[in-house]
């Protein structure tokens, strides 16, 4: 099968189109023919070698951890899905990713694609959507009436976090550039802080939850806007326990755990009109396009998601 792989860490030039073996499946897995995948920052961070200590993969590595497609083979123990089903998934984190025509996936990591959702839309959800859900629901225990600050609201995780927070009845503030005002309001943001002109820690206070996707000084200043016993969840870097304790808050670093059940919840929200996807740009599945997609993602100024159309 065709795949885009890396044989060593480095820049975008390390992305190479190759023919590799189609994955074999275990009795608890299905084989998905991928119709669409998407680009996430973890892809180019792995490519550049930034995550070697966390993810010690052998080469060659096929990047990509979002997939939408159709089941073409299933293991003997798979009971809830059949060949021909349209599914989407955030597969397990292995070196056999989704920049490929096929991927093997554990049954419990699958979710059905609603009829109203395209493969491109489905591919844009898993990693970013599950990250937002787990930060706000599983770790921060969001509830109706909470005040939530989401940094980088126009980014891949931010767009889903805003919508999930609103779905739970929270008041949502977000940091963004001025050009994204109307877009973020359309997702449900109640307050937008223009980070280039304003200091969010001077404007906001008494918040229950902060979702930090930036790290560094932004993370440190975020403690100032939290109320006592508030919660900071970070996907950027592990927070300082001492710093959090000095403000009387809880601070957690979240590393996504793929879960098909939670992905199905997001699919149901989409079906019911409570979640929409935002696709910034779609690229065809070829080496030059994957390199271009990485370059776009590395600008840190992408509104929504970058999708790769495999068909």
From TrEMBL:
GO terms for molecular function: oxidoreductase activity; zinc ion binding. It comes from Salibacterium salarium. This is NADP-dependent oxidoreductase. It holds the Pfam family ADH_N. Residues 11-308 form the Enoyl reductase (ER) domain. InterPro entries: ADH-like_N, ER, GroES-like_sf, NAD(P)-bd_dom_sf, Quin_OxRdtase/zeta-crystal_CS, YIM1/Zinc_Alcohol_DH_Fams. SMART domains: PKS_ER. Keywords: Oxidoreductase.
């Amino acid at each position: 099968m065709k795949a885009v792989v890396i044989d060593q860490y480095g820049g975008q030039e390390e992305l190479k189109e190759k023919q590799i073996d189609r994955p074999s499946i275990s009795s608890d897995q299905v084989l998905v023919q991928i119709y669409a995948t998407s680009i996430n920052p973890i892809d180019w961070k792995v490519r550049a070698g930034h995550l070697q200590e966390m993810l010690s993969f052998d080469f060659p590595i096929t990047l990509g951890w979002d997939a939408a497609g159709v089941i073409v083979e299933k293991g003997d123990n798979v009971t809830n899905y059949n060949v021909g089903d349209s599914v989407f998934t955030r597969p397990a984190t292995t070196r056999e990713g989704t920049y490929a025509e096929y991927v093997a996936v554990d049954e419990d990591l699958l979710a059905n694609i609603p009829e109203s959702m395209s493969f491109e839309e489905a591919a844009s959800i898993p990693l970013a959507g599950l990250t937002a859900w787990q930060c706000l629901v599983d770790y921060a225990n969001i509830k109706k009436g909470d005040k939530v600050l989401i940094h980088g609201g126009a980014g891949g995780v931010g767009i889903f976090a805003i919508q999930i927070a609103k779905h739970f009845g929270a008041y949502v503030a977000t940091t963004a550039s001025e050009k994204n005002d109307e877009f973020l309001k359309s997702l449900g943001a109640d307050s937008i802080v223009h980070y280039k002109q304003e200091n969010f820690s001077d404007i906001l206070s008494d918040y229950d939850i902060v979702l930090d996707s930036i790290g560094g000084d932004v993370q440190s200043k975020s403690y100032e806007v939290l109320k006592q016993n508030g919660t900071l969840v970070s996907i950027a870097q592990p927070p300082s326990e001492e710093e959090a304790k000095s403000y009387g808050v809880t601070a957690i670093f979240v590393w996504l755990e793929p879960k098909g059940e939670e992905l199905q919840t997001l699919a149901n929200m989409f079906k019911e009109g409570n979640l929409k996807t935002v696709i910034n740009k779609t690229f065809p599945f070829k080496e030059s396009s994957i390199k271009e997609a990485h370059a776009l993602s590395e600008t840190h100024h992408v509104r929504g998601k970058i999708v790769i159309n495999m068909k």
